[in-house]
Amino acid sequence: MKIKALLLAPIAALALTSCSSIGVHHDISEYVVYGYNRYDPKSIQYVNDFKILQLTDIHLSDKDNQDIHFNFMRKVVNEANPNMIVVTGDLFTFASKGTAKRFFSFLDSFSLPWTVAFGNHDEQCFFSVDWMTETLNNWGSNCYFKDIQDDDIPGNCNFAINIYKGTQIFKQVIIMDTNRYNFNGYWGYDYIKQSQIDWYKSLVDKTTEEAGEVVKSLMFYHIPLPEIDEAYAAYEKGETTLLFGSKEEKTCPPEMNSGLFDVILEKGSTQGMYFGHDHVNDFGIKYKGVDFVYGIKSTDRLYHNQEKLGGRNIVLHTDGTIGYESIFLNY
Ligand SMILES: [Fe+2]
Fold it and tell me: Domain tally for the chain?
């Protein structure tokens, strides 16, 4: 959403008091990224054990010896041998446009579909988040990114990508923006806004209508939802088990719980949620039937565990279940 739209929102609210919502509306189908090179709407075809490689918390900066980081990430991608790559935020910290474009070119170089969600640090750069959105919207080639900038949905990366089996949608990859910082009521990490939750509901309903059944989805974002603590408490009480990994630091979800997880349970579409943010947590937990999964930090920038750097494959099995492959490599 552009700042201009934010500034105009209160005026629009006064003028349109009879309307239930404000802003520029787009049909929900516009939020689905269509096709390889955007020519073929059904172009990501499922293959057996389709692997989505999650990379996270790259934090590339202009000051780095970037070759070291790119070489490491290249090793991780080659080892993972994925069918798609998703980066779950904090791509940059104090990066210039040149560094950002170098990273996007790097992701593009594997000739695989790739996309990104944004993290809270992605605004601490020598460019705006809006610039990054616009750049990715127009990247073309293997980039599957589409944020509608003149809409009334907060955030800079809210969209979906379908993975097809023939002409049927097999899985839906949903990217959501957990936004950056909150200054309203408390200072801290931002949260998913109500209109984003309404957008998610509409997306699941539309996809269900199109497929004739509830399509299972995977959601990627940066900051864990507050329920991460409930999930871990359930594990400590013996009510659920860890899928893998360990908790090495206090979790840092937003203070505000805006209720996305309740809607996820109500809708029954999302099987797993994949996020980063807490650099040395790498655990996954199944909680209330949904996988809560931290990524594996993919560079040694900022605080990290030297023994646990790499990435994780999310493996989509033919029977609909999900498996995981953790990839840890030496820097
Ligand atoms: Fe980070």
Answer: 1
